[in-house]
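Hello again, I could really use a second opinion on something today. I've dropped the whole record in just underneath, so have a look.
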Amino acid sequence: MAQATRQSSLQGELEGCALHEGEFGKVGSVIFWNYAIDGQPKVARERIEAVDQEKNLLVLRVIDGDLTKEFKSFLVTIQATPKLRGPGSVVKCHLKYERIDENGAPPEKLLELFAKLTQSMDEMLLSEV
């Protein structure tokens, strides 16, 4: 099993990820995530479904972990679009999911974590300029 680890500055919320199969950024690769929602540790395994360099697009499918206890399917699409004026990009994260229980809560806390992650990445990239 290939092992590579990347760390995040969001300690306590996003502890990091480990590459379990393939290569970071390559279709078919499997990534294992350690994160927390409301202080509760969570895990997720995702397979990279699509990568489009020209469109700055990444599609991930959750294949195992805590989310599979609440959702039949869970697909994450992330796309960065360069701003028309000035430096930087606008990042959009789209979640497509089917709940196991129709009365279950939507993954709002996960969206909050994605927003924090995006802001953290923005701060890191701006500090390198």
User: Anything to note?
Assistant: Residues 108-127 form the longest helix (20 residues). Helices lie at 108-127.
